[in-house]
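Ticket opened by: R.M.
Priority: normal
Category: complex prediction / small molecule

The reporter submitted a protein together with NAP and asked that the result be attached to this ticket for the collaborator who will pick it up next week. Submitted input follows.
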Amino acid sequence: MTVRVGILGATGAVGQRAIQLLDGHPEFELAAVTASESSAGLSYGEAAKWRIDAPIPESVADLTVRETDPDAVPDDVDLLFSSLPSGVAAEVEPGFAEAGYVLSSNSSNDRMADDVPLVIPEINPGHLDLLEVQRDERGWDGALVKNPNCSTITMVPTLSALAQFGLERVHVSTLQAVSGGGYSGVTSMEIIDNVLPHIGGEESKMETESKKLLGTFDGAELDHHAVEVSASCNRVPTIDGHLENVWAETADDVSATDVEDAFRGVESLDLPSSPDPLIEVFDDPNRPQPRLDRMVGDGMAIAAGGVQETASGVQYNTLAHNTIRGAAGAAVLNGELLASDGWI
Ligand code: NAP
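Result attached by the on-call engineer:
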């Protein structure tokens, strides 16, 4: 069955990636695109400052950009990918869900709400059942599902592999690409020949979202994992691909080999955008690197390497493509899970 889908905020950096990923998708047909009032009414080709190094799919270039309003989106569109600025998303997403649309959203608003599933399909697919609680509490016919922040998605699949050893404490230092801030997020004068040692709000997102993702859902409430996460987030002059240095402490003694085996043991799903393997483990301690490895698994896999034992636990490096696995691809994959689990 083909599901007709739309993108809210389709002209932005994440929306453009979503358009690229939906081109030729085996289950989804892109039928509607929305953006701000200044773009509404124009063709997508006119409205979007296209920045992806592949042409705009022909079928999309001629679509008329609609207003970001439930009345402007056709009723036969069932699934919406939302890539709006979080302030805008906080205002409009509930209205779409109330109007019956199922939303798979990138925006950071409501990620930590008790009745909003925050999902990485290979890691916590069962959290989707929180939608029953959401529909009961909010009276929505539609639904709102979130994917985590791009830096969190890069790390959590590896942490889920370590949970079996009694994961207690994590320190992480990130080296995040400039595309994570959107096209106009960081100016060239700020970032060339430089590193910015703070990304507003990013540290706390990594600390809280990780605990929610690794938590357990008993059918009524979600119990967050007890792991303590401390993050330091840095913006570096790479275009795409967040690299992260992780130090993890576990209750059990673990060797580097135990950790690598655990990473290899995290299973992918039988969904079109889930890569196999989910975690690509490198033996070479010089890998992963953003330029060489951000496209592992077509940008949907997590790359990990440099695993070593330390005085207090283990240290390793992990990398993912921030606008594919970290944003648009994450939302598309959540859409695939929503469809396969019968929520659409
Ligand atoms: P962006 O490039 O600034 O794009 C924003 C989109 O929202 C554009 O399509 C814009 O349309 C539309 N928009 C802006 N104001 C609007 C309004 N008042 N009403 C309706 N539409 C409006 O942002 P982005 O980098 O794609 O990020 C989108 C969301 O994804 C954000 O919440 C961000 O935090 C999140 N995210 C981004 C990344 C990343 O790597 N970039 C990763 C994870 C999550 P116009 O073109 O008409 O202005």
